[in-house]
Amino acid sequence: MSLKLHLLGEAYIEQDGGRMSMSFKKAEAILFYLALEGRCHKERVKCLFWGDRGERQASGNLRNALYLLRKALPHNFVSERGYLSLTDFVTDLEGLDISSAAAIPPALFEEPLCGFESVDSPDFSDWLDGARRRIRDETVLLLRKRLPSLEGEVTEDSRMELLSALLRLDPYDEESMAGLMELYIRQGAAVKALSLCRAFCERLDGELGVKPGPRLRRLARELAEETPRAGGHDGQYFCCREREVRKIIDLLSAAGGRTTLFFIHGEAGVGKTALVNYVTELLAGERGELFTACPMSVGEKFPYSSWNNIAVRLVERLREENLTVETAALSLLSRHFYGISDEESRGTPLIQERDVFAVGKVLAGLAARLYRGKPLFFIFEDMHWFDEQSLSLLRVFLPELRVPAAVFMTSRPESSERIIKMIYNIKSVPVGDFLHMRLQPFNGEEVLRFCRTFLSDEVVKARGADYFMRESEGMPLLLAEMVRMLRDNSGAECRDGLRGLIMSRMDELEPLQREMLSALSVFGAPAAIEDIAMFLEAETEQITSAAEELLRRGLICEVKENDDYGVDFLHVNVRECVYNAIPGFKRKQLHRRIAGIMKRHYSPHIWSPALSAMLCHHHSMAGEKKAVLEQHLQEMSFHINLNHILFPMIRDSVLLKCSLPFSDREETEAKFRRIGEILQSCGAEEISDESELRRLEASYLEMYGGYKINWGEYEQGRRLTDSALEIAGANGFDEIAMRCLEDIAHHYLQTDRSRELSETGERILALARRLQKENHVGLALRLIGMASLIDGNYERAEEIFRESIAVFEGLELTGKFYTLSLLAPHCYIGEMRQWRGESAYAMAQFEYCIERCRRAKLFWGRSHFCAHAADTAIDLGDWQLAARHIDDGVSLFESSRGGHCSSLLYSLKAICDARRGDFDEAAASLKKADFLSAIGKKSWCAAQYMAKGWVGRLAAQSSATVNGCLDRPWEDYARAAVKLYGGFGAEFRAERIRKEFGL
């Protein structure tokens, strides 16, 4: 039988692979005592455990313990001739693997022989303390045997881990501390080594009252004389910031698993970025994942623009780790951050959870899943360029981040006070975990040290100590540029500030290299080599060669964006120097040419807000307000069609490429206000052609009016569309006039005014045929058919609907697919058949629409078709089928990027919620349906009355309450539904409600 005693951590006995326990704790303690001390006399054991008891009691207790031991371990426990011993056993110390490849077991760091504290014996307690020291000494000895096998560069991390383990076991081990410091120095982490050394020496002095030995004192002295220096990160030069680096390292070292915040502010060029980059490189081995925010320095900012890079990278890293990102999280993030794609989850519309709290929680949750025992690093640079939503998101994200992290923030002075107040107002961030520092320019001594670090003594001496301070004013950015210039040409003149330095350095370049820098300054953001080549009308190979030389000279850096590489300036101040050196008239020309190049990457229906903002910026800088206005109108056209139109008139080939996120009404109104402001600012100087200005105005008014009508704001909507129609008629803008008439027709459709709808439909039909717009011919026929439907002339309506279907089927023969426009008449035919009691035929129509959308991979419209299928299933008495269609419709609608839906879906969902007994969810569904049915369409309002009656009756039967949704008795809602359904000819449904409710 095998016997193993576990000494490390909790002490226990293992027999034949299973854990063994004893009812008498002192008997178990005797076993461990014998294992560690060997054979000993009974009297010694008796005195150790019961020395404070009488002879008779002590002897009796010993006899009981020995009896238990003989019974439990007959083959291992020996008692003969007054002596006790333990045989044929091993301990967990003997089984430790000391090879270099083996992992250090966590139990090694736990207190040995845990669990015997309850043994009531002063003598045993004294022995226990000594035994624990001996076990710790033995584990230290075992670990030290590993060290010789861990020599060489490949095993440095393992050696560092081992030395750290030795220090955990013996916090006063000078040799291990010295070895660890040497490893940090070898890895270039001198500041980290110095911080550890200082903390160790303070511990020695404070707790033991001793000074460090000669080896440690020598290392500390050498480190104190060293200056951190790096020529490395993107060619930056860094030194003379030891105090700041040490403060950061000290706070990180003392964090103890908490999140630490660092805010570094100062003038542009004072070295904020260089300091953050140096620290993150210094701690490369001590940190986890690194995430960096990228605010926009030029162009119009969009909500959460600064966070896009972090959000996309978080999702990418989780996918790289084969970790699933929840659909709900992707849905939310894909509405705020471009570059996050998922076919099944494209953003959540309607009554939105689209607030900063939801986004902050999701991002913090994703970050937490990437924590691997080392603090995550987040860098938020240039917060003076953050949009308001990005700042708000940071306020939410920080307290929601529940794993250790280091957060670095930088800003120029104008925003520093606001950001500091923001951090202090976050209650979950302790003051001691927040360090803010203002970086000042170097003083004369630091300037001289900087120059002596990176320049030869001859160059420094030739210029004189005052020269560098006078020309740089202590600004590290200027000093770095002076160093670069003097390293290339020791006789160069470094005058006229940064602009003079950059211009002097550009004079030394070849013409193509100078042109490339000028072009890059006008781009205003990282640019692809291919785009620069097109801009300069040069071969890509030539630009690549020029870029390599500029990289070597430290004038530009390489930047990775969206899985591609581009180039940019090392600092925005350098870009501004180059840009401002270009004559104003030439800058306008260059901006115009860049806008032309960027249009190659741009599509108004593909969501890329950064590209859109940059394109607007270049048009604006080129003085092309007309182009800015046209771009906004193009984007708004898709925005309205995809978010606020039930059946958008867009070809499938374009629709399937659309990636615009859902925008709520408040955001849509803000977009319209922005377009209105641009339009108002456009005068004869910006758009010399008066007719063109009127065309743009009419397009804006039509779009805004159609949007208002779609949401039931008929008075304002008609005022806008009527104005647009008047301008279009006076100037011959036939296509705009046709769209105005379509908006007006939807007004009549939503308010069930059949005569006006029929007349307007005929006008649209005539105009569409004259313009040879077959797709609009099909739409006009559908509108005319709807007029007959409202009148109750179902046979005539179906006949016209089939004409509309035939138009779109004819277009499909020519390769022009408008699937949603083709299916809309099918849906209306299904509605009419359902109202007449032909439920099976109606269900076939709706399921055909759903299947066609599924085959075409269209999610627009599908939720509407699902709602009608569910409505018909209720008529068929199949509640299970109804629930399935409702669940499918809601899932599609609430996980799609855009799309519109009628209130019918949520009215029916409320009934199903109530049938399940979930009256809180039923109330939420009714509120959503109220929001969507506000346009006043009779069939939608009838379904909502029916739903309120049904939910109210079920709530009354269950003695439940439905808060905030029902202000009348349920019978009143049921009667209102019967009246409305009967009023537009849906007698079958009206009768169904009478029977259901006993009216």
List keywords for this structure.
999 residues, alpha/beta, 44 helices, flat
Uncertain parts: 227-234, 343-354
Distance between the termini: 84 Å
What spatial form do the alpha-carbon principal axes imply? flat
Rg, rounded, reads: 39 Å
Largest sheet: number of strands, sense, barrel closure: 5 strands, parallel
Number-wise, the strands total 14
User: Helix count?
Assistant: 44
Helical percentage: 55-70%
Approximate strand percentage: 5-15%
Strand order of the largest sheet: 9-10-11-8-12
Secondary structural class: alpha/beta
Description:
- This protein has 999 residues and is of the alpha/beta class.
- Helix 41 runs antiparallel to helix 42 (938-957).
- It has a five-stranded parallel beta sheet with strand order 9-10-11-8-12, sandwiched between helices.
- The longest helix has 23 residues, at 122-144.
- The protein contains 44 helices and 14 strands.
- Residues 227-234 and 343-354 have low confidence and may be disordered.
- The chain starts with a strand and ends with a helix.
- Strand 5 and strand 6 form a beta hairpin.
